């Protein structure tokens, strides 16, 4: 849960109190001519597809979606938010424009349980023949399930850091929050050489990374190091980091990282970087407010859909290859499920009316 002071600060930012921000760093000398990633992206958005149900849960917002698409079915996990706190929900659908009618399964009904759980990430860990759901619960937590379509089987939470918040995060978090855990593994065949990496953010301009071998996973996470930092402007490296393996790519575009940031007038968008390895140097790709991975500057809305949000916020690419390598084929147009909100909404942070929508990549 976030403190009232922190919520007030976020509300002020949301209202546009932050009107001037330092220039965002940019690299323009990277040769991407032989790689599959474009240097700029264009998207078209649906209207709101999924929101809270009219039930006794009294949810204010649906947030932070993670999604895989298997045999034509979208499997979605998301945070449920209201003033009293967070938990998570699962639903699935086959027709995008009927997503809003999909039944909800609230994950506090499973052994995963009640209490603070938020910001899920789902993937299939092939060595264990299990689905993993990674999320925050005050620590970096996970649950497992042999069947993604049966949400009642998600196990009780276990944590990646048995001793609590690592010291490097304690020392650098300031007045931020430890949030948005994300796991991605490399593709080495030897399980003792293959590494699985755990990323997290602190809402204070720092992105952290830990690692363990695939043979040990989920045990044995190392103490984190900083994978990326912005000491001048924490809002330029905020949260909601996603890392994907780019199918067929080589060189410095083998992996792509996207991170949520704030625009100069307080709305949300995604920046992007690339790297030759998960633990390598991250090179800016589409990483500015003027040229974002996804944001107000490069998202239009479907014909007949009013511009209902100015934020392209916490979400992820729809994955059709759901294993632990998080491989995405960028040679075909992407779908990206995100959270958006009415820019005129005025309420405390936890009670903002977030809704889920989909952007689809437009190709030249």
Question: How would you summarize this macromolecular structure in one to three sentences?
Answer:
The protein has 364 residues and is mostly beta strands. 5% of the residues lie in helices and 37% in strands. It contains 2 helices and 22 strands.
Which descriptors would you attach to this protein?
mainly beta; Tachylectin-2, Chain A; 5-stranded mixed beta sheet; globular; disordered N terminus
Explain what you see.
- There is one protein chain.
- This protein is mainly beta.
- The chain has one domain (4-19, 32-361): 5 Propeller (Tachylectin-2, Chain A).
- 5% of the residues lie in helices and 37% in strands.
- The protein is built from two helices and 22 strands.
- It has helices spanning 4-14, 167-172, and strands at 43-45, 61-70, 73-82, 85-93, 105-106, 118-125, 130-136, 140-145, 158-159, 179-185, 195-201, 206-213, 225-229, 239-246, 255-262, 268-275, 283-284, 299-301, 313-317, 327-328, 335-340, 355-361.
- Strands 18-1-22-21-19 form a five-stranded mixed beta sheet, with no helix packed on it. A five-stranded mixed beta sheet has the order 17-16-15-14-20, with no helix packed on it. A four-stranded antiparallel beta sheet has the order 2-3-4-5, with no helix packed on it.
- The longest helix has 11 residues, at 4-14.
- It is globular.
- The chain starts with a helix and ends with a strand.
- Mean pLDDT is 91; it is low at 1-34.
- This is Alpha-L-arabinofuranosidase.
């Amino acid at each position: 849960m976030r403190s009232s002071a922190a919520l007030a600060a976020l509300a002020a930012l949301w209202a546009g109190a932050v009107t001037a921000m330092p220039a965002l760093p940019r690299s323009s000398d990277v040769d991407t001519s032989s790689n599959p990633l474009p240097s700029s992206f264009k998207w078209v958005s649906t209207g709101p597809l999924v929101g809270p149900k009219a039930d006794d849960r009294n949810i204010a917002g649906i947030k932070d979606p993670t999604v895989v698409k298997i045999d034509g079915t979208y499997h979605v996990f998301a945070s449920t938010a209201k003033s009293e706190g967070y938990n998570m929900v699962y639903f699935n659908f086959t027709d995008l424009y009927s997503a809003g009618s999909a039944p909800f399964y609230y994950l506090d009904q499973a052994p995963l349980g009640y209490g603070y759980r938020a910001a899920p990430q789902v993937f299939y860990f092939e060595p264990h023949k299990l689905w993993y759901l990674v999320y925050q619960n005050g620590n970096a937590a996970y649950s497992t399930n042999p069947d993604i379509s049966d949400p009642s089987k998600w196990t009780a939470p276990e944590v990646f850091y048995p001793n609590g918040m690592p010291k490097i995060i304690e020392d650098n978090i300031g007045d931020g929050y430890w949030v948005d855990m994300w796991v991605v593994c490399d593709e080495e065949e030897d399980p003792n050489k293959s590494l699985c990496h755990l990323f997290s953010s602190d809402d204070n301009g720092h992105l952290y990374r830990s690692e363990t071998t695939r043979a040990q996973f989920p045990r044995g996470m190392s103490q984190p190091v900083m994978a990326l930092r912005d000491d001048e402007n924490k809002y330029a490296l905020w949260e909601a980091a996603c890392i994907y393996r780019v199918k067929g790519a080589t060189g410095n575009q083998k992996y792509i990282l996207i991170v949520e940031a704030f625009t100069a007038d307080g709305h949300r968008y995604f920046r992007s970087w690339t790297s030759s390895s998960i633990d390598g140097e991250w090179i800016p790709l589409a990483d500015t407010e003027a040229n974002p991975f996804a944001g107000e500057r490069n998202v239009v809305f479907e014909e007949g859909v009013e511009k209902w949000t100015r934020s392209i916020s916490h979400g992820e690419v729809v994955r059709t290859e759901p294993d632990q390598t998080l491989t995405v084929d960028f040679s075909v147009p992407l779908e990206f499920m995100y959270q958006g909100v009415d820019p005129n909404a005025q309420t405390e942070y936890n009670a903002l009316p977030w809704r889920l929508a989909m952007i689809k990549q437009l190709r030249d």
